Amino acid sequence: MIRLIRKLAAAAVVGSILFSRPSLSQILPPQNRAEHVAIIKGPEVEFARDDLAIIRWTTTNPGGDDDHFAVIHFGTNPKDLSRTAKSHIRLNRGHAETLFRVRVDGLTPQTTYYFTVTSTGADGENDGVQSPLNQFTTPALGQQIRGLSAAEITGAAGHTLDTD
What residue numbers bound the domain in which 128 lies? Predict the structure, then answer.
């Protein structure tokens, strides 16, 4: 009788391991979208070299789908931001703020780029926040920039960046 109980217990354990779906219990429904999303830090050039830049900014948590995209619209003409770069992120529901980062490839050395940043949900719906027009200048061939603050990135009417 004890052998039968042991076999049944073992079968129950194996069955529960093989046929359970713990991932289903971890999928949460989307949270409500925030009524107002604001950029609270940045945008900032985290890193740039002659052919790429990484731009970051922080917003209040936009809510909605956990899957989001950081989006940059950019170009060499402030009136034609026809190029787009975006990066996927996952929102952390436990944080009041969200850090967005985008890698912008295919840049030209010693060229001034104008850009705005925004974010969207996985469905493509804009989170309702967009930065003012900003600019940065890529360094010369073989050089790089690290950690420019918001004060060093100028608005479109300001001066170009000091890349020393």
Answer: 39-155
More confident residue, 128 or 151: 128
Number of H helices, E strands in the chain: 2, 10
User: The pTM is what?
Assistant: 0.72
Residue 21: band (very low, low, confident or very high) from pLDDT cuts 50, 70, 90? low
- Rounded to whole angstroms, the Cα distance separating 119 from 97 reads 13
Residue 112 maps to a domain: yes
Other CB atoms within a 10 A radius of the CB of residue 155 amount to 12
112 alpha-carbon distance from chain centroid: 23
The per-residue pLDDT for 36 is 73
In-domain check, residue 26: no
Q: Which residue has the tokens 């289903």?
A: 24
DSSP H helical segments within the chain, as ranges?
2-19, 22-26
Cα 50 from Cα 95, distance rounded (Å): 34
DSSP state of 70: E
Does a cis peptide bond (omega within 30 degrees of 0) precede residue 43?
A: yes
Three-class SS state of 104:
strand
